[in-house]
Structure formats: C-alpha cells, structure tokens
Design a protein that fits this description.
single chain, 124 residues, mainly alpha, two-stranded parallel sheet, 5 helices, 2 strands, globular
C-alpha cells in the first residue's frame, strides 16, 4: 500500500443483491465501475472519514478525504480487484486510522484485502 493517499471514492448505484456497504455490486471489478458507482463509493468512503475535505484525524493516516466529489470521481483508482476486496480494505484502513496506532495500520495493510488492493496498485 502506498504512503499517504487522497482516496477519491464516490458512491451511488447498486441495488444488486451482491451490493456491499457502498451499494455497488461487490462482484464487479474496480476497473469496471461507472461514474455512478464511483460517486457511490466516494460518498460511502467520505462518510466514514468525516466528509469531503475533512482533515485526517490520525497522523498515520494512509487514506484521507478528497476535497470534493468531483475530485474523488476524477481521481478514482483503476485496479484489478473486486469491489468487495476494495471495500474490505478501505473499511480495515479507516478502522485502523480511527485506532491511530502503527500496529493497527500495519495489521490493516497486511490483511488479505489490503494486500490484494496494494498489489493491484489501487493506491499508487
């Protein structure tokens, strides 16, 4: 996983029974998301980190809120992992950042979801 990253995620569509926490089809590849999916993923993510433009609450933060939805969707990662893996990693990273210890961050980075996301270059 890369060092400090401004994660531009948006959230919108979904409706599928296989939708994850963002509402986007969890079986879909991140490379296949459309603008509505990006908007849904972004909204889901920023809801966990205090909203668009919110400052990081942890000096060790790997993920931080983008300034606005337009930036989030424009800079959305393109990588070959499923939405489920991507959401799983983001959830683990946000939880670790809320704990704000090096051990928690390192454990999240080493998780299977974040390992896959990192290897796919999602946060490069």
């Amino acid at each position: 996983m890369a060092a400090a990253v401004v994660l531009s995620l948006a959230g919108a569509c979904g409706g599928s029974s296989s939708g994850g926490p963002s509402g986007v089809d969890s079986t879909k590849q991140v490379t296949a998301v459309n603008d509505a999916d990006k908007a849904s993923l972004c909204d889901w993510f920023v809801g966990m980190v205090g909203g668009y433009g919110a400052p990081a609450t942890c000096d060790l933060a790997e993920l931080s809120a983008p300034p606005d939805k337009a930036t989030c969707t424009a800079d959305f990662p393109v990588c070959a992992v499923t939405i489920a893996q991507f959401e799983g990693c983001v959830t683990k990273m946000v939880s670790a950042q809320n704990t704000c210890t090096a051990a928690a961050i390192n454990a999240a980075i080493a998780s299977p979801e974040c390992d896959a996301v990192g290897m796919a270059g999602c946060f490069n």
